Amino acid sequence: MSVSSGGSSAGLSTTSSRESAVQHLNKRAKAKDGGDEDEDLLEEKRSFQEFCYYCMDTLSAEKAFTVDWRINLPKIVLEGLTGFLVVFNPLVQGWDIDYNLWFWQIISWSTYHSAVAINRDYNVYTNVMYLHVAVVGLLLAGLALLALTVNKVQKSKELKKWVKVLHFCMDVVFTVGFMTIFSVFTFMFNCDFQANNNGGTNMHLHFRDVDCSEVPHLVHMIVGGIFALILGILACIMAIADTEHNPISRTWLASPSTETRMKIVVAKMVIVVCAVGINETRRAPTIIVWLAALYTWWLYFRQMPFYNTWVNISISSMWLGIAFTASLLMVLSWDHRNGDPDFHYWMTWNVLKGIFPVMVGGACCHYAFIWYKMYWTRKFVDPPPNLPLRKIFKFEYPEDVEIMSRAMRKFDRDGVVDPQAVELGDTILRAGMQYFPKCPGLLVLYASMLLEVKHDGPLTRTQLQNAMKLRPDILDKYRIFVIAQRAKRMKDAADGTMDLQSYVEFKRNYRMLARVHKEALQNQRDFWKLFMHSKTQESNVKKALKDLEASSSRAQMVYSKIMERYPNNGKLLKCYGKFLEEVKNDIGGATKYYSEGNRLGSTDAIMNMDFDLAGRKKMDFLVSMDLHEDAVVIIDAVGTILMISQGTTAMFGYSKIELENANVSMLMPQPFSQRHPSYLQRYTSTGDPHILDKVQEVVALHKEKFVFPTELGVTKLSGSGSDSVFLGVLKAMPVSMETVRVWVAPNGVVLCADQQFSGLMGYPSEALVGTSIFSLLEDPSAGEAFNEQCKAASPEDFAQQRIKTTGRFVGKYLPPVPCSVTVKLGGTQTERIFVWNVKRNDKNDEMTMVCDTHGTITFATWDMAALLGMSTRKLVGTKLDTLLPPPYNSMHAKWLQETPSVIPSSSCRAGVVVQLLNSSHVLVPVRIKVHQMEDQGRTLHVVRVTRAAPNALVEEKRVSLTCNLNGTIEEIEPAESQLFGWPAMEMKGRHVADVVDTFATWRQKIADQYFGGDVERCIVETGTGGVKLLLLAFMDQEYARPGGSYRVSVKPPDTDFATAIAAAQNTQHQVSPLLGY
Fold it and tell me: Which of 761, 780, 947 is nearest to 867 (CA)?
């Protein structure tokens, strides 16, 4: 996944051609006075979805009063009070409320639709509703205006203030006052719409003289319904926009749970709609109100949408009180005493007397629930090193991971987050990602933690890319967009950390800057050219002056924006000084910026680089480079690394700091690293290119000192001679399991070898350097003759792959391996290097690992290390017991010291399937073969490993017997099995009762009962010894309960069971495996 750069906070136009710039300027010239431009140069083209995300992010970024308790505390109180008064007010039929009480007169105005409806007439209420329509309409217009000016918000302090006011107003209307305003609109539908034969009158239930089926009330209902729907949609949008992406935010109402808050908005809408429709005859809505209130409480209780614990407890307890009130309303409506004034009075007082104890009890329960959830976080403190993270704790839902990760929200006295708490939260999130590997929301949450807490921009972008691969929903896509924007801003704001990818973006912005600068100069030239004529019209002068001022203002705005992002770029400061001098005529300001630019300095070769490779007709290899996957390296004329891409660090294992300003030869093995400076010197002196704009197969040197094949394409970006700057793109080549490579000098000395060849030979790559290739062959003389053939061959012979031979390579740990060798030409014609491409002819895919008698691994092939998820250097030196699951890790040391004279069939030395632990503590089934050898006076165990199928371990512990109804064993699979310590084929043709104790016992029982214990007579007379009945019984049982199994004992056919069991115990064999039917 790649996050679109179109969403950057200051995403600048990427138009690279002069024609498109001219077309844009022509459009500007045709625009009416002050008219909006068709395209803003400061923004890249976005999709409609990204544009909506950008608008929402801009609106949310200008929050006001997020920390002030004097604003947030009333919002929390009103959250519960408005919900309570929607359910408990005089307009809801059933409550006995004295509206004249002074206390009620005060609090009722929090849901003022009831106060207006009771104290005023229908016309006043209608006017109030249309006032709210106007307010919602104005906020909609504000959103539309924000969409039109969103690209200019970051450039204008006045616009920022306006957006802050807009956000505050929308927060009041769509969050704090949502239920109240929604009630104003829906109250218009409080009509008696029942059929006339059921007593329906179509009259409004409160304004009794208003007919709901006639104009104008019908129009009022339509308008109210439309704006109620708009209000609900905008409330959901506000819930999305105000999602908090910083897991350590200290604001009161910071909430990461977008989906939960949207569900709460919908539940509130249901409560309001149903509460309006409750009267004496319509009682069903009371059930819906109760269920919706209970569901809202459950969301606050279980999901805990806010980061602040006390905010969650307060609001959840208030909604429990609302659910309690709704439950009493439901009882009041459905009880047979409904209509009795005393009963209504009693139920009303029950609400007032019971709601506060219910809220206190709910708060205590919620606090205990939160304590219980956070209690389990201690399991993630110093977890066992061999235990996979996903097995530490069993999460119920992905939301539990986010809740438990709030353990990182531990601050010191100064408000700084505790580093140990951060690591605890990191561990919990990683465990959750392993437990729910298909959940993109957790990857997004982890990315936000990496960005806001650990300030790790590159790793944040990696997690966001992984999240996009899991097809996130629209809510997660918004979060990905916002976090990517913040990561981009963090990267741009960092001093001295511009990598290749951000520099490419800088060059795009710089080209756009050059266009607007040039436009201002052209308009200035056109203005002064008018005065070169003897006569000129005043209108032309005014128009030219207006164009000059507009282009100058635009250039000033673009300079300000880009300099805000790159404040320490020396070249940019000098360009701005030139703008002040040539366009603004500000000599003093220009001098200031010239001196600052000279002080910061810049590398002219880098600043003049042109990355428009596609426009320069470069080869596809360079044009198609991926800055995330490919290693892109920019060097100067002496080989100093100026810049690298993100993929370079991943491919070579070095950090960015280690590579930049180092020499590129550190990425090459000998002798190429030694010769590379002379190649550069030859080009700068003669200008004769040998590898420029060509794709070559080369070898690269990893930080861990192993070489690997890559494809290399090099081009010159700028400069000449000693000022040249080159760009190289390296793309990893797929590793071949059969073909290995070794680079040989004409005298037969090994210059370098890849990991596959070193594994074949049993030596580390560095140990092979300087060795004669002939010493590695079974027939050295044949190797010398083949080398003479290589030296005499022409380049065409190598190109057409005519130079080839066959032979046997002799490794340190393996028997001679038959191979085919095809030689390619490396180096140059004057300094030849022979690339031996060695292909195994035995089709053997075994991996090798060697350990000593102490269990220390002394050698391992690269594919063995890859199987275990480690590097070769890390695996070598590791103790063997760390690769074995318990209990074998503690039992194995004895067998390394003492090799048994007789190898049991169940031993790993017998070639059976075993399981190894990889670096993630996941069991990997493999089949191994072990043999011993002596090396310089020490005993070594050579382990040859082949990856086994996932079910191979089970299959190897099972023998299938096929017998007829008479009990005669006809087939055995696998026939060569030695599972029981003796050849399984010995059972073929024998009776099943001769080898399995269950059948033998049954046969003996039949013989004792009917034949006086004579088994032979039983067999002769019955033909099956009674076993047929038992087999049929097993078959019936299988039909009734498929997959059943029985524990039985197995013995050789000519041995009694007591003897077999004793022998098995002496030889430590298991003689009673599970035999399934």
Answer: 947
CA distance 55 to 630: 34
Minimum mean pLDDT range among 119-128, 566-575, 779-788, 931-940: 566-575
- pLDDT by residue (tens digit) across 497-525? 445 555 666 667 777 888 888 888 888 88
Q: What gap in Å lies between CA 353 and CA 882, rounded to an integer?
A: 65
> Which strands sit side by side in the sheet containing 913-917, from one edge to the other?
857-860, 847-852, 938-947, 923-935, 913-917
Q: What is the pTM of this model?
A: 0.49
Which helix (DSSP H) or strand (DSSP E) does residue 711 occupy? strand 707-718
Q: How far apart are the first and last CA of the chain?
A: 50
Residue pLDDT, tens place only, 656-705: 888 878 899 888 887 778 888 888 888 877 777 777 877 777 778 888 87
Cβ 526 vs Cβ 512: under 8 Å:
no
Give per-residue pLDDT as tens, 722-769.
778 888 888 877 666 667 888 888 888 888 888 788 888 888 877 888
Joined together, the tokens standing for residue 754 give: 């890849």
965: CB partners within 8 A, 6+ apart: 1024, 1028, 1031, 1032
Inter-helix orientation angle 997-1010/1015-1022, to 10°: 90
- DSSP, collapsed to helix, strand or coil, labels residue 653 as coil
Give CA–CA dist 241/252, Å, rounded.
16
Indicate the residue type of 920.
S
Secondary structure (3-state) at 613 = coil
Alpha helices in 566-601 (DSSP H): 570-579, 587-600
Torsion of CA 131, 134, 139, 144, to 10 degrees: 180
